[in-house]
Write a structure and sequence with these properties.
By secondary structure, this protein is of the alpha+beta class. The chain is built from 23 helices and 22 strands. Strands 9-8-14-13-12-10-11 form a seven-stranded antiparallel beta sheet. Strands 20-21-19-18-16-22 form a six-stranded mixed beta sheet. Helix 6 runs antiparallel to helix 7, helix 7 runs antiparallel to helix 8 and helix 19 runs parallel beside helix 23. The longest helix has about 45 residues.
């Protein structure tokens, strides 16, 4: 171990080579002596490598370790300065050393070296300013490792830019055939001036702290200044002044090594190098005291008390800040210098193991973190304990009462959320429907409730999506619609996720490998993020297999019934024609022989047969509504009404009816059936006119989802209690003697409107006419065109035809 006296003489002796070297340069400059040239390039490169480059790496390493512990950018800048100077000077010397494969011109080498000197001086100046003015020693609130890599990465990039710019000739000329240029001298002069200022700053810092580390580092900076002066006054490479500058640079490296090896102020050699450096380049004590007093967290500084056997038995409070006073709820004068068991005698009873963490930190050197409730106030604290030196500790107490309360509330909320989730899962499993949930917009990750699992025969954790990756995708079923395989991207869940729009009222069929077939019907809605993007979908489907089977059975039954009605009606036509034919022959053959009563009987028979034939024709028409139906196509209702009027022209002329037609739209419908509807409604309006001249008004009104048509007349009207009865088969409100008919026409109209998905009803008062309304949905095309100009309304007046 080096004694304190010897270290003192070593510090004094450190000034001797500096003084000698400075004096020698002064003499050489004043006398102008250049003497001999000595330039063993290999030796210079080795010296640069060992005493400049290797020392710079050592200094950078120590600075990095110290920065990670202290977070002070002073130390970080010292390391950046060292690595910048060491690398650039080594590259410059390497480039002018022959036989190494890298050849730099004198100007390129000088430029690299001199720019390196300037950058090094600037980095040291920045660190010195922060050391002298503590408030400028900023701490970066981020990961220290990240900041360290960022700084050194930036330094390496800067070094590379300097080398590249020097070689590429981006800098002005530093060295010409006639020697150093004025620019080179100016750069060195500026670098030397900056370095002198840095020496003064570090000297002041040393006088404040008397730190051996700062002493040797300051001496190294003075040697660096002498090196700059020697380089500035160099006439030729290898002359005595040039070598004085080089020796100054090597002395700088030696003094930096001494700084690394020096003990910390008040720490001795037991502390690590990085700890000694972190302590040496700390902020001044006044700033630390200010930070200590104003810290938001409670900070306690103390030491362990040992018994005669060296066993920790108590603590002594040495210092505390205002925040820790608030924790104790008393002035610190009541605690400082006292043992804990003296100041807080009941603490052992309330916290039996309270001493353990302090022993773990102060004796074992570990940093301890734990949470504890302070028994006197009930508040919770997050406590960090570390040891600045053996037997002593610093305890930082962060009030986490609100955080603990928030954590407890969060835990309670999570428990409630878990219960709600379990309730929701129970509800989903209890619902008699399959519920599907997609966790992504593409529908590749999908789960289902118990009903889905039972339907598909899959375990609860299985992915039930047909869009899933092949190794996860169910392989034993496919989805069909109208006997066509549904493409994966057109499945309801995938459609809703892809388009972001609901898929409502959809039905399709699952076909399984074992021959099963299951029809489902339901809705799917997309799930959205806060920004409106789609994050998945949820769908609910019910099993409609029984309904589909019933529909198929009903279709077969209706088809058989229609076929039966057609055949029955057709078979009735032939005997009826025979009866009517023979009655006509009988009337013509025995015309003169029959008395009045016989003729009356024959007329009644013919009339009944005629009515029977009309009834059979109407029954055939009713049965053919479904059988003869065509798919929907654009139908111009104005043309339909005009064609109907032409068909009814005879009855219109005979009754002298006026038919008013307002502009009518084009709809998606069956044209022939629309003509049958209009023919029945208009002919009824003309037939039931009573004693008045018939007036028929045909119009249409557009709604949000449908068109509403109306056929209004001024006839005899009807009692509203019969408004539903008249649309039933064979329901008549008048005798055939009053108004001929079979009671089937409006039933046919209703069946046609029902087939088109519309509604039909009547509004009327007896003696005041009637208005028949029916609707046609817009779906499937709706209105294609419409002439809104009422001036183009068609008026059919038979008197003008």
């Amino acid at each position: 171990m080096v004694s304190e006296a010897l270290r003192k003489w070593m510090r004094i002796a450190g000034f001797l080579p500096v003084f000698v070297l400075a004096s020698l340069i002064f003499i050489l400059v004043v006398t102008g002596y250049s003497g001999f040239l000595f330039e063993p390039q290999g030796l210079a490169l080795v010296l640069h490598f060992v005493l400049v480059f290797c020392v710079s790496l050592l200094l950078a390493f120590v600075s990095s370790r110290a920065y990670l512990k202290s977070g002070s950018t002073i130390i970080l800048l010292i390391g950046i300065a060292a690595i910048t100077n060491g690398v650039l000077l080594l590259v410059a010397q390497w480039g002018i050393t022959p036989g190494l494969g890298v050849a730099l011109t004198a100007n390129e080498a000088v430029t690299i070296a001199n720019v390196g000197f300037l950058l090094t001086s600037l980095f040291i100046l920045a660190s010195g300013i922060q050391l002298i003015i503590p408030r400028l020693n900023f701490g970066i609130v981020s990961s220290r490792k990240l900041v360290l890599w960022a700084f050194y990465g930036g330094a390496i990039l800067l070094i590379a830019m300097v080398i590249f710019s020097s070689i590429s000739g981006f800098f002005p000329l530093f060295f010409s055939s006639s020697g150093p240029t004025a620019l080179r001298q100016a750069v060195l002069g500026i670098a030397a001036f900056i370095a002198v200022i840095s020496c003064v700053m570090y000297g002041i810092a040393y006088l404040r702290t008397r730190s051996p580390i700062l002493y040797w580092y300051t001496l190294g900076l003075i040697s660096f200044v002498i090196s700059l002066l020697g380089t500035a006054y160099t006439i030729k490479i290898g002359d005595p002044i040039n070598w004085c500058g080089r020796v100054g640079l090597y002395l700088t490296g030696f003094f930096f090594i001494m700084a690394v090896m020096a003990p910390g102020s008040g720490q001795g050699f037991e502390a690590s190098v990085s700890n000694r450096w972190a302590y040496a380049f700390r902020n001044d004590r006044k700033r630390l005291a200010s930070l200590f007093a104003n810290m938001r967290n409670g900070v306690l500084y103390g030491k362990l008390v040992m018994d005669d056997n060296g066993k920790p038995i108590d603590l002594v409070y040495l210092d505390m800040n205002d925040a820790y006073e608030a924790i104790l709820e008393s002035k610190k004068e009541n605690f400082l210098g006292k043992r804990v068991t003296e100041a807080l005698p009941s603490l052992f009873d309330r916290l039996p193991n309270w001493l353990g963490p302090y022993v773990q930190a102060a004796i074992k050197g570990e940093t301890v973190h734990y949470e504890r409730s302070w028994p006197y106030s009930g508040k919770w604290y997050y406590i960090t304990i570390y040891s600045p030196e053996k037997g002593y500790f610093v305890a930082i107490n962060e009030d986490i009462t609100e955080r603990r309360k928030a954590q407890e509330e969060l835990a309670e909320s999570q428990q409630k959320e878990k219960a709600r989730r379990e309730e929701l899962e129970a509800i989903m499993d209890a619902v008699p429907a399959t519920i599907w949930i997609s966790h992504d917009a593409a529908g590749t990750d999908m789960i289902g409730n118990k009903a889905v699992q039972e339907l598909l025969g899959l375990p609860p954790e299985a992915n039930v999506s047909e869009s899933a990756p092949h190794h996860q995708r169910p392989q034993h079923f496919l989805a069909y619609r109208d006997d066509n395989l549904i493409p994966t991207e057109e499945l309801p869940m995938q459609m809703a996720g892809r388009t972001g729009r609901p898929v409502l009222g959809t039905e399709f069929e699952f076909r399984f490998d074992d021959g099963r077939s299951v029809w489902v019907y339901g809705n799917v809605v997309p799930l959205k993020n806060e920004d409106g993007s789609t994050r998945g979908a949820i769908g609910a489907f019910v099993d409609i297999s029984e309904r589909k089977n019933a529909e198929e059975e009903l279709k077969r039954s209706n088809a058989e019934l229609q076929q039966f009605a057609y055949l029955a009606s057709h078979d009735l036509q032939e005997p009826l024609r025979m009866v009517l034919g023979y009655l006509s022959l009988l009337e013509r053959k025995y015309k003169g022989e029959l008395d009045t009563q016989a003729k009356e009987y024959i007329n009644h028979a013919v009339d009944g047969g005629t009515r029977m034939r009309r009834l059979i024709d109407d029954l055939l028409a009713y049965s053919r509504v479904e059988a003869s139906a065509k798919s929907s196509a654009p139908v111009d209702m104005k043309e339909i009404v005009e064609d109907t009027i032409k068909v009814l022209k005879t009855s219109i002329d005979e009754s002298k009816a006026d038919v008013y037609i307002e502009p009518l739209p084009t709809v998606m419908a069956d044209g022939l059936q629309m003509q049958l509807v209009m023919q029945n409604l208009i002919s009824n309006a003309i037939k039931f006119h009573g004693t008045k001249r018939p007036m028929v008004h045909i119009s249409a009104k557009e709604g949000a989802k449908e068109w509403t048509f109306s056929v209004k007349d001024n006839g005899i009207g009807l009692n509203v209690e019969y408004a539903d009865k008249i649309f039933q088969m064979f329901q008549r409100l008048h005798t055939t003697e009053q108004y001929p008919g079979t009671g089937v026409g409006l039933a046919i109209v209703k069946k046609i409107i029902d087939r088109h998905g519309g509604r039909i009803w009547v509004e009327s008062e007896e003696g005041k006419g009637a208005t028949f309304f029916f609707t046609i949905p817009k779906s499937g095309g709706g209105r294609v065109s419409f002439n809104p100009n009422p001036d183009l309304a068609i008026v059919w007046e038979p008197d003008r035809c």
